[in-house]
What we know:
Blueprint: H1 18-36, E1 41-42, H2 44-51, H3 55-62, E2 75-76, H4 77-88, E3 94-99, H5 103-109, E4 119-126, E5 135-136, E6 139-143, H6 147-154, E7 158-161, H7 165-177, E8 182-185, E9 198-201, H8 204-216
Parallel strand pairs: 3-4, 3-7, 4-6, 7-8, 8-9
Antiparallel strand pairs: 1-2, 5-6
Amino acid sequence: xxxxxxxxxxxxxxxxxxxxxxxxxxxxxxxxxxxxxxxxxxxxxxxxxxxxxxxxxxxxxxxxxxxxxxxxxxxxxxxxxxxxxxxxxxxxxxxxxxxxxxxxxxxxxxxxxxxxxxxxxxxxxxxxxxxxxxxxxxxxxxxxxxxxxxxxxxxxxxxxxxxxxxxxxxxxxxxxxxxxxxxxxxxxxxxxxxxxxxxxxxxxxxxxxxxxxxxxx
Length: 217
C-alpha cells in the first residue's frame, strides 16, 4: 500500500476536518490496491473492515464527495477514486522542496509515488558542501542559501523538513523568512512558527512507541 498522508491535502478544503481527510486518503490507498487487483466495485463494509472502523463512518465520509456513486450496489472503484482525487486536489500538484539531504531526505526524494498524490518534489537542500551538486532521482541538491531565491522562482511554499533536532528550529526560522508557508516536519522536534505558517509533525518515533505499546499489552 502506498504512503498516504493528509498534510498537503489540508491546504485544499478547509470545510473538511483533518480526521476526515486522513480517512479519505486511506480510502484512496485501498481503492488503488483493489483497482490494481482487477476489482471494479467495493462496498463501505469492505473498506470499514480493512480499517477496523464502522461502515456508517465510511458512508458519511464518502457522502462529502462529488459524484461518489451509490453505496447500495457498491461503489464503482474508478469513480470513487476519482471523486476523492477531485475533492482533495490530487489533480493540482503542489511543488515542494526537501530540506535535509540525509538518509531520510534521500529516501523521500527517491519515493516516486508522491506525484500520484499531488506532491511534486523539485529539489533538495543541505548545508553540507559535500552533498551540494549531487543528483537524487533527477532532483539536484542545492546549498541551503539558494532556497529563498529558488522558492520564489519555482513558486514553492511547502517544505519537507528532515534535518536533525539540533538544527530544526533554526532551519524553520530560515524557512519562514523565506516565505515558506507549509512545513511537513520529519525532525524529532516541536517547532515554533508564527501565525500563517502551517506545520504537520510526522512523529515517527511516537507512532512506533504507540505500536510498540499495543504489542506489549
